[in-house]
Write a structure and sequence with these properties.
This protein is α+β, with helices and mostly antiparallel strands and 286 residues long. Helix content is 24%, strand content 26%. The structure holds flavin-adenine dinucleotide.
């Protein structure tokens, strides 16, 4: 496994934004992840785990650490009685499709979410009333020392767009998901319906929803009511069609996006509402 230097992260994020990773690697086995962790440990560097980069805003200065990208590798899938054992690098959308082709389903509503299984577990990604965490039976995780252990379903602490991984430095390597046998045709129909519902989402580069919904309110509706829809800073814009999306109009800097995030949060705070970001911020922002 090669560890390369100064790798532009804009090539690995859905935003197409982001400065370089000081170090970058794409391991394809748990042993290689251990090697990467040892490398970071020796140089006292922080470690950043990257999936498909569809929920990350990387600062323009990049990150002074080691980025370990697990997308594409770690993409195994095996089906046992009522369970799918899945590598975290597999795309969530591909997983749903591959299961359906074999007549297994449960989470077709998540079809079209552009992340990996690992990123979807970290975020407890969800859509149309279903979240991936509901189906997780257990996961294989690695701690910063390279020790592998299993987490039971309850130990994931899943909540709305949240999991234990947002609070503890654990790398998910593999997960086991509950699946049930269903008609192949019905599954394909449901997948197509889920994808169709996404056709109205802004097509420009983004990270999806920027903010988590505060209790009982849609963040997008709130931003619209605050009159901020369509607001531009530099080449970033609060989407005129979906106010919870901040889009890259072409050549936006991370700072442009961050300035819009700040603006929205300040306006919300003036109304007594704390708007927490769903997007994860990597690196330093002014
Ligand atoms: C157009 C668009 C639509 C979207 N729609 C939805 C939606 O409907 N619902 C939804 O929930 N999200 C949605 N998202 C957001 C995003 O796709 C999800 O959050 C997705 O689960 C992120 O997966 P990823 O692989 O891209 O993770 P990344 O963006 O690469 O990483 C996200 C976080 O997960 C961590 N992480 C990734 N892999 C691992 C691992 N193996 N172990 C430990 N930590 C890890 C990273 O360190 C980072 O903190 C959308 C995004 C876009 C661009």
């Amino acid at each position: 496994m090669e560890i390369t230097e100064n790798v532009p992260l804009k090539n690995y994020t859905s935003y197409g934004i982001g400065g370089p990773a000081r170090f970058f690697c794409q391991p394809s086995s748990p042993d290689q992840v251990v090697k990467a962790l040892n490398f970071a440990h020796k140089l006292r560097l922080p470690v950043y785990v990257l999936g498909n980069g569809s929920n990350i805003l990387v600062s323009d200065a990049g990150v002074d650490g080691l980025v370990i990208r697990l997308a594409q590798n770690f993409n195994h899938l095996s089906i046992e009685a009522g369970s799918a054992r899945v590598g975290v690098g597999l795309s969530l959308d591909r997983l749903v499709t591959q299961l359906a082709e074999k007549g297994w389903g449960n989470f077709e509503r998540l079809a079209g979410i552009p992340g990996t299984v690992g990123g979807a577990i970290y975020m407890n990604a969800g859509a149309h009333g279903v979240s991936l965490g509901e189906f997780v039976q257990e996961s294989m995780v690695m701690d910063p020392d390279g020790t592998i252990s299993r987490l039971s379903s309850a130990e994931h602490d899943f909540a709305y767009r949240s999991s234990i991984f947002q609070h503890k430095k654990l790398i998910v390597l593999e997960t086991v998901l509950a699946i049930s046998p269903q008609s192949n045709r019905k599954l394909m129909h449901n997948i197509a319906a889920s994808r169709e519902k996404r056709r109205h989402l802004p097509p420009l580069p983004s990270c999806g929803s920027t903010f988590r919904n505060p209790p009982g309110v849609y963040a997008g509706k709130l931003i619209e009511e605050m009159g901020l829809k369509g607001t531009k800073i530099g080449q970033a814009q609060i989407s005129p069609s979906h106010a919870n999306f901040i889009v890259n109009l072409g050549g936006a800097s991370a700072q442009d996006v961050y300035a819009l995030i700040n603006l929205v949060q300040t306006e919300a705070a003036a109304r007594g509402i704390f708007l927490q970001t769903e997007v994860r911020l990597w690196g330093k922002f002014e």
